[in-house]
Amino acid sequence: MTGAGKPRGRSALRARNVRIHSRRTSVKLEPAFWDALEAVAVREGRTMNDLCSLISDKADGYGLTAAIRVFVLAYGWGDSLQAAMTCVPVGALPKRA
Questions:
Q1: Least CB-packed of 3, 6, 25, 89 within 10 Å?
Q2: Where would I find the beta strands (DSSP E) of the chain?
Q3: Is the pLDDT of residue 3 over 70?
């Protein structure tokens, strides 16, 4: 065991393959972020790959994983795709309505 009771070698991150435009890549996120990202894709009528491509386009040299986390947080905070995209990759959270 290490730290706060986490077994050695275990990670909360889960890897999934996504397509960024036509390129396949692996992304590791916590299950809660995957669940939230899927919920956003459904709500916005987009595929997970399409949403990840939009986020990647805005990541501007930052890591895709970090950009996805910021996007999910901003979407939950602002409840709008457009507002969340203005925060990617590392912007301030959108103003609440």
A1: 3
A2: 14-20, 23-29
A3: no
Task: For residue range 44-92, list pLDDT tens digits in order.
Answer: 999 999 999 999 999 988 899 999 999 999 999 887 888 888 888 777 7
State the CATH number of the domain containing residue 53: 1.10.3990.20
pTM confidence score = 0.81
Give the separation between CA 81 and CA 27, rounded to whole angstroms. 21
User: Considering the domain boundaries, does residue 71 fall inside one?
Assistant: yes
Q: Is the Cα torsion angle 50, 58, 72, 29 positive or negative in sign?
A: positive
**28 touches 15 (CB < 8 A):** yes
The whole-angstrom separation of Cα 27 and Cα 34 is 10
* Tokens (6 digits) for 36: 């939230």
